[in-house]
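Subject: design request, 239 residues
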């Protein structure tokens, strides 16, 4: 695993995003949106695991990395920024010219890519890609997929998913195409070990709420593993 990216500046909260990532600058002057202790370990684990899956599936996601916040840096921050916390966090590289994706742009996204995003969200039980807030960007006209901290939804509703997804029309086409479904499911099956390995290699400190490692974090690894392993079964696409 690559060495963590060192953060030298916490600039401000992101303009959008319910989980309030912080825009930060690394020592190499790259900008990252960072989700640290201001979110929770559950969010960081999910972002980390899903980013590896998305990259393996060749989905268009920003570059990502583990980033590190030094205690001296955080101690010097004002209170409204200091809750980002110290230690290792999840960082998604900022795309300078990106704009927020709107419903009107759906028709400009290739149908195959739309279906691939739907299939990925179905796999990771992600309801957080609706038309009101699709967690997508456009980078000079090209789709960018972001934000998976709400994946593995314990209240996942298949009907709600297929009705409200930003790419619902192509999603319905996917669910009726047995050949494409089987091909995607085979890809997913091959990646089960990737997710397991990624979660196992996540920072040890994410397992705990506190720096003394006495209170376990809220991440439910077993629930997420069970969701991922659904793709091995014949009922994977059942609504």
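Subject: RE: design request

Done. Sequence follows.
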């Amino acid at each position: 695993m690559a060495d963590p990216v060192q953060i030298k500046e916490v600039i401000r909260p992101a303009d959008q995003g319910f989980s309030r990532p912080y825009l930060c600058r690394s020592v190499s002057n790259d900008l990252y949106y960072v989700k640290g202790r201001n979110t929770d370990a559950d969010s960081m684990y999910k972002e980390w695991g899903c980013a590896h899956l998305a990259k393996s599936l060749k989905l268009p996601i920003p570059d990502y990395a583990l980033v590190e916040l030094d205690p001296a840096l955080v101690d010097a921050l004002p209170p409204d920024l200091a809750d980002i916390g110290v230690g290792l966090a999840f960082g998604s590289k900022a795309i300078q010219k990106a704009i927020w994706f709107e419903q009107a742009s759906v028709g400009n996204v290739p149908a195959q890519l739309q279906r691939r995003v739907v299939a990925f969200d179905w796999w990771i039980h992600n309801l957080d890609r609706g038309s009101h807030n699709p967690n997508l960007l456009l980078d000079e006209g090209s789709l960018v997929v972001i934000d998976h901290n709400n994946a593995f939804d314990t209240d996942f509703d298949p009907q709600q998913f297929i009705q409200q997804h930003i790419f619902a029309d192509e999603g319905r086409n996917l669910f009726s195409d047995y050949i494409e479904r089987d091909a995607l499911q085979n890809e997913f099956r091959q990646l089960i070990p990737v997710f397991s390995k990624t979660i196992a290699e996540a920072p040890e400190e994410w397992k705990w709420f506190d720096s003394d490692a006495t209170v376990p974090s809220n991440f439910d690894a077993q629930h997420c593993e069970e969701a991922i392993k659904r793709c091995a079964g014949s009922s994977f696409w059942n609504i």
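The chain has eight helices and eight strands.
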